[in-house]
Design a protein that fits this description.
Length: 149
């Protein structure tokens, strides 16, 4: 008898929780969050997470597959293979150097490789690996490394 009441109470709490959750709005997955926007938060407040756009998320997946091995997961030029390279990969999180680059230069570098922009010939061309749309996605993701700094 007590067990049946307990199970009934538990079930009703579960249903109430699910019903209340329906109107709570969309949830944010861990994949859609990139970094803290601590500049927007008041002192002592919980940091607000920046949600990536669709293009940035798609670019992030491509970046992790093709670029992170040299440029690093956070774009700092400290990827697994970076120590083998001379010159070292660019630090994509350096806001001053990234601000000096136009979107066209970034697209050219990704598509044509380092040699196409008179930089390191060790950076390969990805024009034969990913299409123009995907190159734009990677460029959008790369911009998130230095955004808001």
């Amino acid at each position: 008898m007590i067990r049946a009441r307990f199970l009934t109470l538990l079930l009703s709490l579960l249903v109430a929780g699910c019903t209340a959750r329906k109107g709570a709005g969309p949830s944010v997955s861990a994949d859609s969050v990139r970094r803290n926007d601590s500049a927007l938060a008041a002192p002592g407040a919980v940091p607000v997470e920046r949600v990536l756009s669709y293009e940035e998320r798609q670019g992030g997946a491509l970046y992790m597959k093709y670029c992170a091995v040299c440029h690093g997961k956070e774009g700092k030029g400290d990827g697994f293979n970076a120590f083998n390279l001379d010159p070292r990969p660019r630090d994509l999180s350096d806001s001053s150097s990234m601000a000096a680059l136009s979107d066209a230069q970034i697209l050219q570098t990704i598509g044509g490789g380092g040699r196409s922009v008179n930089k390191s010939p060790l950076m390969p061309s990805y024009a034969w690996t990913i299409d123009d749309r995907q190159i734009r996605y990677v460029a959008a993701y790369i911009r998130t490394f230095s955004a808001g700094e």
